[in-house]
Amino acid sequence: MKQVALFTLPKCKWCNEAKAYLKAKKIKFNLIDLSTNKKALNDCKKHGCSGAPVVLIENQWICGFDKNKINKALGIK
């Protein structure tokens, strides 16, 4: 199974949508709070992501909650 990390912010509607989506698809993921982890925030910015959520699948950065990109990266429908 591919390594998945979900970078979120508190009270972020799309972050909660992404979290629920990954759980519904039974995808295990590491949850990282960008409001408390400045290194993770800088990593996201370095890869061109300016908001949350950010999904990291192996070495592919997905800015925002984009189901199609997430599914393609995970090889699911």
Automatic annotation (TrEMBL):
What is one GO biological process annotated to this record? cell redox homeostasis
Please report the stretch or stretches of sequence annotated as the Glutaredoxin domain. 4-61
**Pfam families given in the database record:** Glutaredoxin
Annotated SUPFAM superfamilies: Thioredoxin-like
What Gene Ontology molecular function terms does this protein carry? electron transfer activity
**Source organism, top-level taxon:** Bacteria
Q: Mind telling me which InterPro entries this protein's record contains? A: Glutaredoxin, Grx-like_ET, Thioredoxin-like_sf
Q: What is this protein called?
A: NrdH-redoxin
Organism this protein belongs to: Halarcobacter anaerophilus
